[in-house]
Amino acid sequence: MRRLPATLAIVATLVAAGGASGRGPAGVSPLHGARAPQAVKASGAVTRVPVLEEQVLAAINNLRRDHGLGPLRLNRSLIATAGQHSMSMAEDGYFNHSTPAGAPFWKRIQAKYRPQAGRPWRVGENLVYATPDLSAQRAVELWLSSPPHAENLLSRTWREVGLGAVHSISAPGVFQGDAVTILTADFGARR
After folding, report:
1. Could you tell me where the beta strands, DSSP code E, fall in 1-147?
2. Given pLDDT bands bounded at 50, 70 and 90, which one contains residue 14?
3. Residue 78 backbone class (left: φ over 0; alpha: ψ -120 to 50; beta: rest)
4. What is the biggest distance separating any 2 CA atoms in the chain, rounded to whole angstroms?
5. Residue 77, number of CB atoms within 10 A of its CB
6. What is the DSSP letter of 189?
7. What is the mean predicted confidence (pLDDT) over 41-48?
8. Cα 95 to chain centroid, rounded
9. What distance lies between CA 25 and its chain's CA centroid?
10. pLDDT by residue (tens digit) across 97-138?
11. Residue 28, Cβ neighbours under 10 Å: how many?
12. Separation CA 126–CA 129 (nearest Å)
């Protein structure tokens, strides 16, 4: 069994836009660095890492301020979707925007972050993981080194964000039993 190096970090990003009808997105950018879902349950404990979420929010908003952009506000619905997705990836051993059942990321987000009638609705998502740990600075650096991730961080479109960070002491599937920290950032705009 090949073990992941201790400093491995993988990132993935997607963006979806849809009208107020709630139908699917008009377009989705390519998936970067994602792995196919695995149907394997976790054997180790998975815990939420709220301090990392707070630090990443501060780092994103500092970056946006440095580029003349307004800060992103936390949204409870996006926090819930991001946290649930990070937990699912850690417990089930996959790293992908889609669920193991194949539901696209925007459908997962739309279940809680609903479009408003007659108004444009748009969501995006950045993913990153590292083994064993991930800092806010490293997460933002990795996203900035990838144009689609950087675009999400610096988009004028986004108004709200939800962050979900988890740590598993022994994650299954693609994580090969290693300790891993996984972070999901769900971006949204409803006007």
Report:
1. 9-18, 46-48, 73-74, 121-130
2. low
3. alpha
4. 52
5. 17
6. E
7. 69
8. 10
9. 17
10. 998 999 999 999 998 998 888 788 899 999 999 999 999 999
11. 16
12. 10
Distance CA 69, CA 60 (A): 11
CA distance 133 to 61: 22
Q: How big is the chain by its Cα radius of gyration, in Å?
A: 16
In three-state secondary structure terms, 33 is coil
- The span from the CA of 141 to the CA of 158, in Å, is 19
Query: What does the pLDDT look like over 146-176, one tens digit per residue?
Result: 999 999 999 999 999 999 999 999 999 999 9
Q: Which two tokens stand for residue 179?
A: 């300790």
Neighbours of 98 (CB within 10 A): 18
**Residue type, position 123, single letter:** V
> Hey, which residues does 123 pair with through a beta bridge?
16, 188
Single out the residue of 108, 122, 106 nearest to residue 20, CA to CA: 122
Peptide bond into 120 cis (omega under 30): no
In the Cβ-directed half-sphere of 129, how many Cα atoms lie within 13 Å? 29
